[in-house]
Design goal:
By secondary structure, this protein is an alpha/beta fold. The chain has two domains: about 5-20 and about 230-420, UDP-n-acetylglucosamine1-carboxyvinyl-transferase, Chain (Alpha-beta prism); about 20-230, Enolpyruvate transferase domain (UDP-n-acetylglucosamine1-carboxyvinyl-transferase, Chain, Alpha-beta prism), CATH 3.65.10.10. The protein is about 30% helix and about 25% strand. The chain has helices at about 20-30, 50-60, 85-90, 95-105, 125-135, 165-175, 190-200, 235-245, 260-270, 305-315, 335-340, 370-380, 395, 400-410, 420-425; strands at about 1-5, 15, 40, 65-70, 70-75, 85, 110, 135-140, 145-150, 155-160, 180-185, 205, 215, 225-230, 250-255, 270-275, 280-285, 295, 320-325, 345-350, 350-355, 365, 385-390, 410-415. A four-stranded mixed sheet has the order 22-23-1-24, covered by helices on one side. A four-stranded mixed sheet has the order 2-15-17-16. A four-stranded mixed sheet has the order 4-5-3-14, covered by helices on one side. The chain is globular, with a radius of gyration of 22 Å. The two termini are about 15 Å apart. Bound molecules: uridine-diphosphate-2(N-acetylglucosaminyl) butyric acid (EPU). The site of uridine-diphosphate-2(N-acetylglucosaminyl) butyric acid has 25 residues, from helix 1, helix 5, helix 6 and helix 12.
């Protein structure tokens, strides 16, 4: 198992380029199955969730070829069996998008229940409700979800909770339905819009993505396309917070500033300077950090995927900040690890009180999930002394070359194998 070793206390300075969005590509790679021709995807991030999605397609019979570092050509027309086995699906949450996309293409799908970050109970009842409303039968059989139908019937679907995954899965199936599907109380995240744009570029007929009512008129066939994935809003936000926490001066390039508005607004309240340009933002700091209240909410609210990182910054503010997690039941698991670095955070259910501590102390810690890992990296960069972060495979699921990008900004960070890794590799 690899670790990050960070010697803290260096100001981040310079420029960093943001990669393609993990949560957009998580939906768009499976969506290629719907196309009757090959597709070319550009701005693909080099993260392990992408490798797993591409591996799933390849194992099912697709032809997958990288044209350059960030461009992949996928011909999914060779897929005949709509099955994603446990060994593949368990590795990431978004494997459940193969349910929608295989149902759309083949009218049946058999996909293992998904894995992914543990953030509390993560039911998929709304996905299954939507598939059932579209006319499919859904059965749980030995850990596999089996869905099938003769015909996908355009329908009216109202989500009881705003769900990104449920909205995406419904779009993936409904795009090949007979008639019109209307999704109400839909999620509005930038990656929902990106998926709709991708599907429309293949010939789909989707209107309203980015609002809470999405209308999808089913089509018979979808053609090949070339499409560039949007930049990752959360990777950008993570670098914004890292730059601020080290009181640095960083230009964050290849971003859509509109997607960062809720993050920018909170950073400005905390006392961070955020200068916006057409496709970049510059972070500087010239005063103390100020306590702030934050509640995570569906887009356009403050994203839950930035909650651990911004809470880490709030540890460096004067006074007590209140952070409320509005999406997941258990997204404060990183707090125990941050406490090892000196954080003074008390958690009661979905509310945390973050007391300012002045600075972190380096310590050995473990990444408990993807964004928890990002938060620990930020704390390590700002800390006095050395921080060792274990279980960094969580971080590599969603951040492309995080240590390389941080090193280019002046951070003292390296990746090390844990003792035993070489013995393990030699034995394999
Ligand atoms: N929910 C239900 N029933 C459902 C679906 C969701 O009750 O059928 C609940 C969830 O338990 C949660 C809330 O609704 O409390 C929102 O869940 P949502 O479906 O929106 O989340 P998700 O699709 O499981 C995606 C991202 C997450 C991100 C959330 C919220 C992917 C692969 N994952 O998860 O990303 O936190 O949306 O924006 O797109 C991350 O990148 O670190 C990450 C966890």
């Amino acid at each position: 198992m690899e670790k990050f070793i960070i010697k803290g206390g260096r100001r981040l300075q310079g420029e960093v380029e943001i990669s393609g969005a993990k949560n957009a590509v998580a939906a768009i790679i499976p969506a290629v199955v719907l196309s009757d021709e090959p597709c070319i995807l550009e701005n693909i991030p080099n993260i392990s969730d992408v490798s797993i999605s591409l591996r799933i397609l390849y194992e099912m019979g697709a032809d997958v070829k990288f044209l350059d570092k960030t461009t992949v050509r996928i011909d999914a027309t060779g897929i005949t069996e709509p099955v994603v086995p446990y060994e593949m699906a368990k590795q990431m949450r978004s494997s459940y998008y193969f349910l929608g996309t295989l149902l759309g293409k083949f009218r049946r799908a058999r996909v293992s229940m998904p894995g992914g970050c543990y953030l509390g109970d993560r039911p998929i009842d709304q996905h299954l409700k939507a598939f059932t409303t579209l006319g499919a039968t859904c059965v749980l059989d030995h850990g596999m979800i089996d869905i099938q139908t003769e015909e996908i019937l355009g329908s009216q679907i109202y989500f009881d909770v705003v769900t990104v995954g449920g909205t995406i899965n419904t779009m993936l199936a409904a795009v090949k339905a007979t008639g019109m599907t209307v999704i109400e109380n839909a999620a509005k995240e930038p990656h929902i819009v990106d998926l709709a744009n991708f599907l429309n570029s293949m010939g789909a007929d989707i209107m309203g993505a980015g609002t809470d009512v999405i209308k999808i008129r089913g089509v018979k066939n979808l053609k090949g396309t070339a499409y560039a994935i949007i930049p990752d809003q959360i990777e950008a936000g993570t670098f914004m917070v890292a730059a601020a926490a080290t009181r640095g001066d960083v230009l964050i390039k290849n971003v859509i500033p509109k997607h960062l508005e809720s993050i920018t607004a909170k950073l400005e309240k905390i006392g961070v300077n955020v200068e916006e340009f057409d496709d970049s933002v510059r972070i500087t700091v010239d005063g103390p950090f100020v306590k702030t209240s934050i509640k995570t909410m569906p887009h356009p609210g403050f994203p839950t995927d930035m909650q651990p990182q911004i809470s880490t910054l709030l540890c460096l503010a004067e006074g007590a900040s209140i952070v409320t997690e509005g999406i997941f039941d258990n997204r404060f698991r990183y707090v125990d690890e941050l406490r090892r670095m000196g954080a003074d955070i008390s958690v009661d259910g979905k509310v945390a009180v973050v007391e300012g501590i002045g600075s972190f102390m380096g310590a050995p810690v473990m990444a408990t999930d993807l964004r928890a890992g990002a938060a620990l990296v930020i704390a390590g960069l700002a800390a006095k002394g050395v921080t060792e972060i274990g279980d960094i495979h969580h971080i590599e699921r969603g951040y492309e070359d995080m240590e390389g990008k941080l090193r280019a900004l002046g951070a003292d960070i390296c990746k090390k194998s844990a003792p035993g890794d070489s013995i393990r590799q030699a034995a394999l």
